[in-house]
Amino acid sequence: MKIKLLFVLTTLLFLSACEEKPFYVANIGNAGSLDGPYSMGSISVADILGGGGDFGYGAVDGYPGKSADIGRMGVPKHIEGYWAKKYLEGGFQYYYRISADIDSELAEKKVRTLLSYYKSYTEKDGSMQVLVEKERIQVLYTLVCVDLYSDCSPREDADSQNWVKKSPRGVTDLVVLFDGKGEMSPTPFPDSPYED
Questions:
Q1: What Cα–Cα distance (Å) separates residue 147 from each residue in 121, 153, 175?
Q2: Bond from prior residue into 64 cis (ω within 30 degrees of 0)
Q3: CA angle, corner 96, sides to 86 and 51, nearest 5?
C-alpha cells in the first residue's frame, strides 16, 4: 500500500512540475485596419496575468498600422473598446463598440504553436495586434519573422491544426487569437470617446 501511495504522489509531483505556467508573449502592440482610415478611440485587451494592453492609438490606416510599446502582455482573455470609421475628407461614418471574452486556452495553444513554429528563428517576444474592418475586430499575434532578414522556414509538422496564417500583406506569419464583431451605430455610443 505504501509503495502505491508513494508512486501516486511521485506521479502527481512530476505532473505538477511539467505544468506550463502563464507567460508574457508581447511587448509591442499594433493597431490597424483593412479598409481605410479609422479612429481607434479606446480599445483595451486584458490578459490572463492580470494586465493587458491599450490599443487606442487614434487615427490608423492600413496593416499593421501604428505601433507602440505595451509593456509586458500575456495571452489575451478579453477585449473591450470603441472605434469609428472615418470619411476620407474627415468626420466619422459609423461608430463601433465591443465587449467580449477571448478563449484564452485556445489562444494560448495558438501562441505556443507559433513560438515553436520556426526551424531556426529564435525570437520569442512578439507583437499583439488589433485589426478592424467595419464592425469586425481581430486580435492577432506575430513574431514578425520576415524572410528578407531571417530564415522563416517552418519546422516539419509545426502546425498540425493549420492555425498559422500569412499576415494581410503576406510578409509575416501570425495566429488569430480572436475574430469577432462589434455593435455598429450611425451615432456615437453613450460614454464613448466620440460622444459630444
A1: 10, 8, 17
A2: yes
A3: 110
Residue 127 maps to a domain: yes
Instruction: In whole angstroms, give the CA distance from residue 42 to residue 57.
Output: 8
pLDDT tens profile 127-159: 999 999 999 999 999 999 998 888 999 999 999
Asked whether residue 161 is assigned to any structural domain, the reply reads: yes
AA identity, residue 171: V
pLDDT at 147: 86
**Which ranges of the chain would DSSP assign to H, the alpha helix?**
2-18, 104-115
Instruction: Compute the 3-state secondary structure of the chain and give helix, strand, coil in percent, each to the nearest 5.
Output: 15, 45, 40
Whether pLDDT at 12 is above 50:
no
Nearest to 103 by CA among 77, 74, 139: 77
Model pTM?
0.87
Q: Which domain holds residue 138?
A: 21-185
Residue at 191 is within a domain:
no
What is the full DSSP assignment across 32-87?
Answer: EESSSEEEEEEEEEEETTS-EEE---EEEESSS-EEEEEEEEESEEEEEEEEEEEP
Q: How far apart are CA 163 and CA 24, in angstroms?
A: 20
Query: What's the domain count of the chain?
Result: 1
